[in-house]
């Protein structure tokens, strides 16, 4: 009986090196990548939905992959976070990100981005590259921490920024305290 089973086609490529990552990004079409860490593994709950969508669409420009962030230098910012993260790449550009195993949102994003990629390849549209908002926020916090550490090393008190409506105001406070002792 086992000999009669059809060989199951692999739905997701498994990316575990920087070289494989770069090869994936060089491929034409939409690459949907489930970024994970070795200790928690890829999001297995989405596989059935991805398989169903792939079969429904039957589009060769749509590829799915899992990428082990622990082994890929380009994904180092994704290490240490356990929430499922799906990155959407087209033409080597990040075009969308979905965090969490939100099946309806992931499937809708795949459909929208695949349609957009067809327009781009047909010359009717341009890709809109994005920066992952989570990573951008993480990098901003890292820069702020570095700046505060530099200020402390220089003997200046750390500056504190106040943000309102997208405008950041940075105040540098220098406090001089004098104490007089009466004898």
Automatic annotation (TrEMBL):
Alphabetized SUPFAM superfamilies for the sequence: Thioredoxin-like (SSF52833)
CDD domains in alphabetical order: TRX_NDPK
InterPro entries: Thioredoxin-like_sf, Thioredoxin_CS, Thioredoxin_domain, TXND_domain-containing
Name used for this protein in its record: Thioredoxin domain-containing protein 3
Domain of life: Eukaryota
Positions of the Thioredoxin domain: 15-110
Region feature (Disordered): 135-167
